[in-house]
Specification:
With 508 residues, the protein is α/β, with parallel strands linked by helices. It has three domains: 140 residues, P-loop containing nucleotide triphosphate hydrolases (Rossmann fold), CATH 3.40.50.300; 202 residues, no CATH class; 146 residues. The protein contains 23 helices and seven strands. The strands form two sheets. The protein has a five-stranded parallel beta sheet. A two-stranded antiparallel ribbon has the order 6-7. The chain starts with a helix and ends with a helix.
Length: 508
């Protein structure tokens, strides 16, 4: 019902190589049906296999990848059923197209890991179903949206229920079954907001248990704390879209962290939810809200940018019933009210200066990581081999660390101070040692000497050739080599704060 366009998109995608002059493809490409849980991905794949089975005379192979080891067991069972241990050779001998369906491709795979689920022979057409949106390179996507109003109403038996669940096929089927069994649609609508277990899980019965809504909530939990916080913000604002800057402002206000930290958290959370099909651009990014079938891409023209991010109504419903930390949700809701409506309670100052000598905070860890990344790629930590490179570029590279370090500390609201009495390895102390204890004595000694020699460069001589004849060139190279040990020591100290050592510990 309401999926005929998607069926043809699947068929066209699987056979795009048959018309290379039109499609620009000369080899078969996999097709992936994407969408959140309960959107009907497996059902669409089955429907396609039934309706278009004649296009695959060598047969249809269905493999389940939703559980650990299920795909490998399915391959073994397929080989046994065909009476061969060489699937490639078997399909080669048939010499005809076949359909290879992999249902429930898990998230979190590398491109190579996802590619191994393709058909075992070039004659095979691969059809994948997945919740993940991270496999663009694996196959052409066919995104499942919510059902259009007329189909959703017919399936639910009630327009009001269809609106309540945003045209979500699985929820519509469960509610529609209850309506056809004699339950009152208005009463059912009220149970969607009642405390306790979700009525959708009750209607699913023993076959699904609490798996329907719980699976959606688990996807968010698996995405990490940043994703859960962004989902809490989006659910609190639903059905209005959540802008990334609003999510960052809420997180900054709730946790009293610098804006840079909050922005990174918000961006990470949105990215993780987006790739799991739990968040869309204004409800039009593959699983849009009820009635979102006008072909828009989520742009509404406000401020000349995308309007914001929205979770599906069923995702919001599932999260409200399975949120593992409702107290955190309430804290973010309060922060949202203070942030978006400051006159109602005043806006809390989100930025704070990190006190030196305290345990590493999240801003300190992020600042340490950023400085560490810059430091380990500079000449000094990375050796300048004799007779190679430019001494001027080496000095300029090290001098650039002054501005970068200060700007990073400023971005994360960390003051640059000297080490305390206990010389604790804080990011402030390490930054002070880097700039004032290590780099400044070096650059203040060698920059004037090299600059004075460069000023004597004869006309027509390249700067690099002139530098190579400098009498003090070898001495500067030795000084650069001597600088390596203290810089590596500082990088190791930053690694202890950031948690990323980039192999420094092994290198010694």
């Amino acid at each position: 019902m309401g999926r005929l366009p998607e069926l043809w998109r699947v068929h066209s995608g699987l056979h795009a190589h048959a018309a290379p002059l039109v499609t620009g493809r000369s080899a078969a490409r996999a097709v992936q049906i994407r969408g959140m849980a309960g959107m009907g991905k497996s059902l669409l794949a089955r429907e396609y296999a039934l309706r278009f089975g004649a296009a695959f005379p060598a047969g249809i192979c269905w493999l389940d990848a939703r559980r650990e080891g299920a795909y490998e067991s399915g391959l073994s069972a397929l080989a046994q059923r065909l009476g061969t241990q060489d699937l490639y050779g078997w399909f080669e001998s048939r010499g005809e197209p076949f359909l290879f369906v992999v249902d429930g491709l898990p998230g979190g795979l590398t491109p190579a890991g996802a590619a191994r689920f393709r058909a075992p022979h070039p004659l095979g057409r691969t059809l994948l179903t997945t919740r993940s949106r991270a496999y663009e390179a694996v196959g052409a996507p066919v995104d499942l949206r919510s059902l259009p109003p007329e189909d959703a109403t017919e399936l639910a038996g009630s327009y009001e229920l269809a609106v309540e669940v945003g045209g979500h096929p699985r929820a519509l089927a469960l509610l529609g079954g209850a309506v056809r069994a004699g339950q009152d649609p208005r009463a059912l609508s009220g149970t969607l907001y009642a405390p306790g277990g979700s009525p959708l899980d009750v209607l699913a019965g023993d076959a699904d248990g609490a798996g329907f809504t719980l699976s959606l909530a688990r996807d968010a939990v698996d995405a990490g704390p940043e994703a859960m916080d962004v989902l809490r913000c989006a659910a609190a604002l639903s059905p209005l879209p959540l802008a990334e800057e609003h999510a960052a402002a809420v997180l900054a206000a709730a946790d009293s962290v610098p804006a840079a930290v909050a922005r990174r958290r918000a961006a990470t959370g949105i990215s993780e939810l987006r790739v799991r099909s739990l968040l869309s651009r204004d409800g039009h990014d593959g699983h849009g809200g009820h009635g979102g079938h006008d072909g828009r891409d989520g742009h509404d023209g406000r401020d000349g940018r995308d309007g914001g991010w929205q979770p599906h109504p069923v995702t919001v419903h599932a999260w409200r019933h399975h949120d593992p930390a409702p107290a955190r949700t309430e804290a973010l809701r309060h922060a949202m009210l203070r942030t978006l409506v400051p006159d109602a309670g005043g806006r809390r100052e989100a930025r704070r200066m990190t006190a030196p000598g305290t345990a590493s905070t999240e801003p300190e860890r992020m600042a340490a990581f950023d400085i560490q990344v810059e430091l380990v790629t500079r000449i000094g930590v990375q050796a300048l081999e004799p007779g190679t490179g430019s001494l001027r570029e080496a000095l300029s590279s090290l001098h650039a660390l002054f501005g970068f370090t200060r700007e990073t500390l400023r971005e994360y609201s960390i003051s640059l101070v000297g080490p305390g009495e206990d010389a604790a390895p804080t990011v402030q102390a390490l930054a002070h040692e880097l700039l004032n204890g290590t780099l400044r004595p070096f650059t203040s000694t060698w920059h004037p000497r090299l600059a004075a020699y460069e000023a004597q460069c004869p006309p027509g001589t390249s700067p690099l050739d002139h530098e190579a004849s400098w009498p003090e060139a070898d001495a500067l190279r030795e000084a650069l080599a001597d600088l390596r040990a203290p810089l590596r020591r500082i990088a190791t100290g930053l690694a202890a704060i950031s948690g990323a050592d980039f192999g420094m510990a092994e290198a010694g």
